[in-house]
TrEMBL record, chains A, B:
Residues 23-121 form the HTH hxlR-type domain. InterPro entries: ArsR-like_HTH (IPR011991), HTH_HxlR (IPR002577), WH-like_DNA-bd_sf (IPR036388), WH_DNA-bd_sf (IPR036390). The keyword DNA-binding applies. It comes from Paractinoplanes ovalisporus. CDD domains: HTH_ARSR. Keywords: DNA-binding, Transcription, Transcription regulation. This is Helix-turn-helix transcriptional regulator.
DNA sequence: CAGCATCCGACACGATACTG
DNA sequence: CAGTATCGTGTCGGATGCTG
């Protein structure tokens, strides 16, 4: 069952005060639970990657989105960026301890979808069939 | 530590074949890890809600996004929609067993942000200070 | 009450081209 | 190699107004 303190955290995130001020953590969650950020963190959980390695590993991502998301993840202290000042330059991305923690939890979520994805797809077809 | 089978699930999600076909589960994850879907599932974990109750509970959401996300969640078999054919009509939303499972895991994630949110904010200011 | 329809702005995202 | 700059498109998401 779900723990009470977790429900409390959820309620805090749901809350909006009388002036319409939302929880300060929402923007952060938005950034990290983006399609690409999740995949990038999962990829880095495998190990440190160069930029081009990540570009290959995370299938379908554009350079723009990759660099953009990496910047956001670095800003939030989840990803460490290490530059080797050679020519051509070598940049290695790795997870910080905080990032490793989060990436592990996100990967649990991913594996949940791996386990239950078929059932979700079945529900979709049932729903669509019932609509028509 | 992260389990091997979880890493395998992650790699499956990262993969793209030679024809550019992405993993079929990605669209589903995109739908469910949306800003609003996460919050709605968390709200429903507290208990079944009417439409207007959800609208109040999930602070800042518009009617449009609420109905749109509820429809998607219902289509994926995560949320059950029950209509009482009275006048005015009463519609109650609740979690299916599958939805309860997922919502619990998402709430774990939310509570992670509750615990580590301060540190993320601190990392942001450090990063911004170093840039200027 | 529980919504759908419509308009509209903002931004996510991709493709392409260019730089240290 | 590791990005940045620019452009164009599509979707997200809010505001408003209307219906059974």
């Amino acid at each position: 069952m779900t723990e009470p303190h977790q429900l409390a955290a959820a309620e805090r995130l749901l809350a909006v005060d009388a002036f319409g001020t939302k929880c300060v953590f929402r923007p952060i969650m938005d950034q990290v639970t983006t399609r690409w950020a999740t995949l990038i963190l999962a990829a880095l959980l495998i190990g440190p990657h160069r930029f081009s390695e990540l570009h290959q590993r995370v299938g379908g991502i554009s350079q723009k989105m990759l660099s953009q998301n990496l910047k956001a993840l670095a800003r939030n202290g989840l990803v460490a960026r290490e530059v080797e000042p050679t020519i051509p330059p070598q940049v290695t991305y790795s997870l910080t301890p905080l990032g490793t923690d989060l990436a592990g939890r996100l990967t649990e979520l991913i594996s949940w979808f791996g386990r239950n994805g078929e059932e979700l797809l079945r529900a979709q077809s049932d729903y669509d069939a019932a609509m028509s």
